[in-house]
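#random but structural
TW: two for the price of one
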Amino acid sequence: MIRMTRTHSAYAALFLILGGLLATGASATAQTATECPREVGAAVECWTGKDDNGAYYWIAKPKQWNGVLIVHAHGGPRMAPLGPDSSRPDLVRFSIMVKAGYAWVGTSYRRPGYGVRMGVKDAENSRRIFVDHIAKPRRTIAHGQSWGGKVAAKLNETIAATPDGVRIYDGVLLTSGVIAGGVHGYDYRADLRAVYQYYCHNHPRPDEAQYPVWMGLPKGATMRRKELAARIDACTGIATPAAQRTAEQQQNLDNILDVTRIPERSLVSHMEWATNLFQDVTQRFLGGRNPFTNATVRYSGSSDDDALNRGIARFSADPAAVAQLADDSDMTGALKAPEITMHAIHDPTAFVEHEARYHAAVAHAGKEDLLVQTFVDETQHSYLTDADYITVLNALMDWIDHGRKPTPAGIAAACPEAQRQFGGRCSFVPDFSPRPYFSRVLPRDGKG
């Protein structure tokens, strides 16, 4: 159940917050009992439904439930149309949590595309659906994965507890979080679009309608991943064995990777975010305004830095767009509940340096007592190992239930027991510390 201080002011504050959520259209619809994915194991009940804002959700509850609910915020943000099974892959991916005895609810969010504060509301709606229609948990944990790490981090800053300190969420877990903030977190993808266009000249092509690359795509335009990948391959040969690339293709690829510091294996993915996600951010979320700048960036690492810096397209941010994006998705660091982060040291999508930027925000807010950051010797972004996830969940629950703040070394030492029970490699590196964010991402005036 929700931890409460039994004072009239605390109850009043809780009612005000929940009442405000109800007033914004957060009421739930009835659930439909649904066959669970086989990956969650036997003796599990599942439900699906759609809330009044249009967000679809999946719920899974083990019959041998430990009384703890995990509210999942998925990554992306996804651009595909929503449907009843939008959250099913998230449940499958993190099914180890259900196997370990946790109940789980995940939301699709109410629409595709960007909006961190929207994601917070939809995650909270999914929690309330579980509480109102399924069961009342003794503890509640928010789990944010990738871009969902922004959602869960913003949740922890805003609604995890009432102004009087009554916790609605007892703890927060961020995994592979894109948590450098909305304004700063996409700088390297804005750089990628500019650098790529300088060398490749095919996104857009000279015979196509021209637009500034910060836009991603013009409003109403579409580009599927297959077409984008074909353009990238034509310029760089990235889909071709290295021995079969032309000298020009190899030089283009080397220059793009060396300047942007993006791994070759994730170049197409980053370009897709810098195309379709940028279109959503700039054209829909920000009403056609630009939040990105490279006006003062000095690009280096290419075969001819002087020529690159003379010829690359430059753009400057609209201050109103920056302010709107910052309000939605920059991190203040003002945590309200205990939080553990886990990040792969070699994450090719959300660079581990995101954690350094996030730690600085939490330290600035004076909330380091509520944060523990852990790092694992892994090369993946979307999923790490079963043992690692269970270990950090166990550490978070011990912190919540007994007030024992964990240490990275203690978490690493506890992993073999989780490995024995659930399998998966233990890969914690307790003495790792990420470099500053702007040691990996090219700095620019006014940022960093």
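TW: number two ↓
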Amino acid sequence: MSCCGKKREEIRSAIQFRPVSQPIRRRDFKPALPAHPGVVFEYIGKTALTAIGPVSGRHYRFSRPGAVLEVDPRDSASLAAVPNLRKRLSS
């Protein structure tokens, strides 16, 4: 009967690990959303609505009639076509 331990050792020796020169710092990360402000939408339906932004992939949950959310500007054109969602003018 053969042992798979030798195969594992071969694989481990074939993989070359490089040490990380510097740790990743939190300030090196950029925010996922654009710096410009979002677009505001209001839900005018009767129950609740969850919409998924096709560009950002974000889930927008309008939990009740009259709910207002700020939406990623990249998703605004698609969400404007959703029934019972209305784009609000900025005030």
